[in-house]
Amino acid sequence: MRNHQTTEDIALGIRRRVFEHAMRNNGGYLSQACSAAEQLAWLYNEELNLGAPTLPMIPKPFGGVPHADNPDYHTGAGYNGPFEPDLDRLFIAPAHYALVAYATLVETGRMAAEGLEMFNQDGSSVEMIGAEHSPGMEVHNGTLGIGLSTAAGLAWGRRRRGESGRVWVFMSDGEVQEGQTWEAIQACAHHRIDNVLAIMDVNNQQCDGAMDSVMEVGDIKTKMEAFGAVAVEIDGHDLDAMREAVKTPHEGKPLIILAQTNPFHTMPILEERFPRLHYVRFKSEEERARMNTSIAQSLGVDPIDYAH
Amino acid sequence: MVDMVNRPYERAFEQHALANPDVLCISADLTSSCEIDKFRDNHPDQFLSMGMAEQNMMSFCGGLGLAGFRPFVHTFGVFTYRRPYDQLMASIAYPRRKVRIMGFLPGITTPGGMTHQAIEDIAVMRSMPNMTILETGDATEVESICAAADSIDGPVYCRVLRGSVPRLFDTPIKVGEMREISLGDDVLIVTAGITTEEAMRATRALEAAGVSVRHLHLHTIKPFDAGALLDHIGAVRGGVITLENHVTEGGIGSLVAEVMADNGIGKKLRRLGLKDTYAHGGSRAYLMRYYGLDALALTRGVEDLLGQPLGITEEDLAQARVEAVHSLAKAEGL
């Protein structure tokens, strides 16, 4: 399903929606929109082969967790379309990017804008850390580092069933600190699982701050190749680079695109908050107002009237 | 004497897997230790080696479940939940994937010491929403564990016995039920896994000493039929005693205690098992004696429960033979 907007427009729209949301709620995952908007816009608008959504445009309220006594339970995967052999699947491995992912669903016509208003509201399925039942999510990934393994298992299973659809993972660079990420890559290589593909937002940021100050991870590309992946480094704000990178041959190996990004791309004023960018909560009304004016100008919109 | 069956899991798994093409054999570098080496050699297309990487294995199996497969995870029980607890929770238990976790070497059935002895696995799994727990106590239960586990609509953790396993029963596991081994009216003994054979030996000596024993064997630990247990507790005069190859916190002793407390049962309860302690490496018989998990410990526990010495000696117990299964057919049929 292709959207009529350009991918550039969608990336801008994602940032505008996340900005508006952060202003109205006195904070949010702004930096993730800066770094990842192009990647998610490209996946949804160009690269993923998805069907039309199967769930209502306005998300249903929280319907309970999986349980034997909850037969009507379903995940939020329906926002990515139905499960068909030829269609792709997507896992958002760092579920902390949920706000950005939801904004992407809105921009690509898969969820109504009202869905974003439900973000982090009690009783809503549009949870702050994307849950299985949240729009666009299929598995719980709030515990970081498990997404690629799950995708690898699903990809192995889909290949065995003769399905042509791929399994895509949106990853974050902090996940390479988890040993499981490396276990997953070696398992993909050992079992020649090449229908799993990932794009990683390499923004060099994590909760405590700049990754190098928290735990140095060295050269991710070299390490991934040593563990058996094909890794391609690109400028994560360059859509043409993504379009080229995905063509890289990777027979018998997973393809991981390392999207080098800037955590304040298009919102330069956020650099004031470096290195604590994981969740930007405004420290004062003065800061909130100043960021409102500056980011609105950067994104080409009017400042948000958050008092109303 | 009781019949011993060699490697019952090996045959049972092969039979089940070949009849169910969506069953996959998953191994974590303990393939021969879990009796699936012949399966690997004979049916490589249905076998996946995941290496010594349990965290990935658990999430990977969650993904296989998402694709409609029913992975049987084979490794030592302790490796299925200590290291990959987070993955077990998020990738398997929460989404109710049909992953069948075959945990070998339950409790002190290994000389491997602390790192290899799953002594708190039942406590961990009981506290995990959506998880079913089965435990095998004899060869017949091992032979029926694959079908029983695979009948569950969700994840299952199984304590599986390997190697030479006694045959105590002649009917397969019926998930959700419990076995009534004897139906006396002085004390109720509740056991699971390898402690059941000990209790059967102790029962002979206790009966000889004039104690009427009611003995239940649990193969289904979660979900649990509290109503049936309550009926049995109501049928004895002298109280309840549990014996488990597990710590006494969170296992079947706790399970019985919870049922009694929840229902206001004022009878005495003695919980035997590992008492807030790790075990160490040694033979099964040595460890069962050292940690008080054997027939002698059980008879001492019954003396304590009844408040009277019974004069049962080690020699009495050594002579108390557990007979071959068919001589127990009547008890089984009660």
UniProtKB/TrEMBL annotation, chain A:
<keyword id="KW-0786">Thiamine pyrophosphate</keyword>
<protein>
    <submittedName>
        <fullName>Putative transketolase alpha subunit protein</fullName>
    </submittedName>
</protein>
<dbReference type="InterPro" id="IPR005474">
    <property type="entry name" value="Transketolase_N"/>
</dbReference>
<comment type="similarity">
    <text>Belongs to the transketolase family.</text>
</comment>
<dbReference type="Pfam" id="PF00456">
    <property type="entry name" value="Transketolase_N"/>
</dbReference>
<feature type="domain" description="Transketolase N-terminal">
    <location>
        <begin position="86"/>
        <end position="261"/>
    </location>
</feature>
<dbReference type="InterPro" id="IPR029061">
    <property type="entry name" value="THDP-binding"/>
</dbReference>
From TrEMBL, chain B:
<dbReference type="InterPro" id="IPR029061">
    <property type="entry name" value="THDP-binding"/>
</dbReference>
<protein>
    <submittedName>
        <fullName>Transketolase</fullName>
    </submittedName>
</protein>
<comment type="similarity">
    <text>Belongs to the transketolase family.</text>
</comment>
<dbReference type="Pfam" id="PF02779">
    <property type="entry name" value="Transket_pyr"/>
</dbReference>
<dbReference type="InterPro" id="IPR051157">
    <property type="entry name" value="PDH/Transketolase"/>
</dbReference>
<feature type="domain" description="Transketolase-like pyrimidine-binding">
    <location>
        <begin position="3"/>
        <end position="167"/>
    </location>
</feature>
<dbReference type="InterPro" id="IPR005475">
    <property type="entry name" value="Transketolase-like_Pyr-bd"/>
</dbReference>
<keyword id="KW-0786">Thiamine pyrophosphate</keyword>
<dbReference type="InterPro" id="IPR033248">
    <property type="entry name" value="Transketolase_C"/>
</dbReference>
<dbReference type="Pfam" id="PF02780">
    <property type="entry name" value="Transketolase_C"/>
</dbReference>
<dbReference type="InterPro" id="IPR009014">
    <property type="entry name" value="Transketo_C/PFOR_II"/>
</dbReference>
